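Re-run with default settings, no changes from the original entry. Doing this only to confirm the output is reproducible before filing.
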Amino acid sequence: MNAMTPSLPPGLSHELETVPNVAAVQQVGVVGLGRMGLAFAQNLITDGYQTIVYSRSGKNLATLKTRGTTVAAGWGDLAQCSIVISMVADDDAAESVAESLANVLPTSAIHISMSTISPGASRRIARLHNHLGQGYVAAPVLGSPDLAASRELFVLAAGTQDYLACSLPILNRLGKRTFLLGNVPELANTVKLAANVLTASTMQSMGEVFAFLQKAGIEPEVAFTVFTGSLFDGKVHKAYGGRIAEQRYLPPGMTTRLGLKDLRLALVEAETVLAPMPVASVVRDRMLAAIARGWGDLDWSALGKLAQFSAGIES
């Protein structure tokens, strides 16, 4: 297995390191079959889980049928699942999925929301499931769909201790490392938004620096090699810096449009807790400018493309 021992923050019992066997979960549902959800479903099938998938749009169902998975005809078909994973685009979709699941899941079932949503939406979903005696774990991820396929994601998980314990065997198999962030689900969503602010800010900085150096006579590929081979060798610098240097914005890992959504959610939460984030505000406006130029469906590293445009560089 490529899963590492979960990281335990202060105050969270180490009893979570002893979790139920994988076989204890009989059937797992996956709702939302974009590139992330598809990767989750395929990995669960590979691991031998009885997997039931549901997609309102019908996306990627044909691919999963060839793997022998069960396709749910409606929400009621998910009632037999011990755990249901959802991976959808935004707050509205996540809350709609939660309401539908709440109507069919038994009290023993757990909904794991792996979507990138606001802390407020996560709080409302937790309240809904708790009211009905169902389990809820927030477990957004750090990483791209390609990393999801290779189980190299980092999972940020929070929820009531018992629900976390039951969810960990699956979460540990879907990612490379699981970080446990306590018993308040929305804190996992808050950390995810903060991580996306850091990622977007890094891409904005790299785009600016590459454009500056290109105008001074240093090609982006050379700048990329220098920086990532010295002091700036982090995963974000290498992955997204490479996209910017190569102008490789398709296919997107995450679109600029979704990146804007995440920056907006982070800034709303920052205002709520009275934490100024001036850099995030600037990057949010840069993403909006990229979308205004028609680049909303490009990878969000198109911030680098915008930096070139602002510097008068033809791309």
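The two ends are 43 Å apart (CA to CA). The first strand starts at residue 27 and ends at 31.
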